[in-house]
Write a structure and sequence with these properties.
Blueprint lengths: L4 H9 L10 H4 L7 H4 L9 E6 L2 E6 L31 H13 L3 H16 L26 H11 L1 E4 L2 E5 L16 E2 H13 L4 H14 L18 E9 L2 E12 L11 H18 L3 H4 L1 H15 L29 H17 L7 H22 E3 H8 L23 H6 L5 E3 L2 E3 L2 E3 L2 E2 H9 L5 H13 L1 H4 L8 E2 L4 H8 L20 H10 L3 H14 L9 E2 L5 E2 L8 H15 L13 H11 L19
Antiparallel strand pairs: 1-2, 2-7, 3-4, 5-6, 6-7, 8-9, 10-11, 12-13, 14-15
The chain binds alpha-D-glucopyranose (GLC).
Amino acid sequence: MGISSEAFLQVLSAPATRLYHKDFCYGNSNVFVPDRDRRGRGCRFTQSRKVNFKNFTGIFASIRPDGMNHKKKKINNLEGLTCKCGRAEGVSEAAAEELRKTLIGGMNNSDVSCFESAQHLKSENGGVFSTSDLGTPGTIHSNLNGVKDSFEDEAWDLLRASMVYYCGNPIGTIAANDPNDSSILNYDQVFIRDFIPSGLAFLLKGEFDIVRNFILHTLQLQSWEKTMDCHSPGQGLMPASFKVRTVPLDGDDSATEDVLDPDFGEAAIGRVAPVDSGLWWIILLRAYGKCSGDRSVQERVDVQTGIKMILKLCLADGFDMFPTLLVTDGSCMIDRRMGIHGHPLEIQALFYSALLSAREMLAPEDGSTDLITALNNRLVALPFHIREYYWTDMKKLNEIYRYKTEEYSYDAVNKFNIYPDQIPPWLVEWMPNKGGYLIGNLQPAHMDFRFFSLGNLWSIISSLATTEQSHAILDLIEAKWAELVADMPLKICYPALDGEEWRIVTGSDPKNTPWSYHNGGSWPTLLWQLTVACIKMNRPGIAENAVKIAERRLSRDKWPEYYDTRRGRLIGKQARLFQTWSIAGYLVAKLLLAKPEAANILVNLEDTELVNAFSCMLSSNPRRKRSRMGVKKSYII
Ligand code: GLC
């Protein structure tokens, strides 16, 4: 059965055959490149340079795209505070129009409709990013006005009010914008993961500049010098968040400059590693290209290098036995100790989506054959591992219940030596007859049976789960509506850790008490992921019902970060109000429900080449005895 290894090799050895202009960067001469790693790679103008300033290093915007240094500008008025460096893309109106025509010429039908309707929306908005509308650097640009027609209008005003500017250009949105909050912590920063729904809302509205700027500026931060107690994390890491600071110009007290100041986890509570940032960055880059029709960003030399650096970091060899990504606790949306170290589902689903997206965008290049091979190998092995070992439903539960243990052999059924007593009592009652889900984590002798929403939803969106499994996950969400959605969509995970388990697993974390925050809290931002998953499976009604429930309270409660209690009835104990991704998540859900075909910019469809490779690899029997001959077999793709 399946295809021969030769055919296999042939099919998958074809690299990503995408249009690629090696010299694009030259033609498009205003390119951001950090001085350190990418100097000399062919981009003519650098707009940034890295310098030490007092106690921190930052990227200073001080050189104009035309090469003129404007550092010594005096502050005469408010305008003087705004540095005058150019935009990430300094094209003239005429050139932009030319570009638009070229893009439409080169797009397929669905792209055209996305691009054109976006342009239409943009003109309806009166072009939000006209130069007259630029804000003061590093500050929030407030646009709140009068009575609101609807929740959506209010949400748009709030989203715009959360925009952050760098050198006069929109570059991201801050995490929360609550004027009455006295303990801001780092919620005044632009978080990479938090910006994803903001970026998507802007894309769907036809406002592409902010997303483009975000992609290019965060790329600059990637090769940042980052250290924690004399240790430098791997190259390719993207920061968890960054802040725009306006600082006095070196040697000139009367002038200022904007500085991007990233946090790679060195300052974050618990020093958690932002593993998801780079994965989200790739996913957003693809969505930007698909929605705007502008593939020039992903084709840029520096962007291609950025993608490869993330991949190299993720695909590096280690001691691990599994194709899943091994990470420390708190390396994703749940960025505190919650017992999700190891191989958490959320990271695996984002990883798979990022691999597929990167494969689509990577240009064929002699030097990257090994990387493409590693990427393709992982794309074959990862879905098999997750579909086979993470899946649980009534049938699988019964299988685990009857597992034999201590099987030493190549063909063990209970490969991870799971003791049946590990099945938590709640699950036996909770598992619906129809439906199932992917468990939260898998390690030797350990299955984390908690249901994690983001991981399951993104497994649907990325096709990491099979079609059958994807429907079953939505069946489970419907069957367990009273627990997972209840009074506010959506529970981050179910159930909460309680008592001794809470004490041991969270380290007695007072923020993660049962049914609060990451420990079974309800997060409105998850609405957008629920919506994409439901649209992909052609079941938008589920998301529509969830949105209706959220609308009852979100605006009235001032758009909280999360809700507490079993049914999500109370605004979270320490929840921020006017939390940007709650606002943006709601907007993306509404925009997508109104235009479901736009969800394509996020969805990864199952790749038949990979499926064939997969069946070939398994020869239809995942539990077949491993032959000695097969030990060395590698799948060169
Ligand atoms: C909290 C969340 C994290 C989010 C951050 C900013 O730390 O756990 O996922 O990125 O707040 O909103």
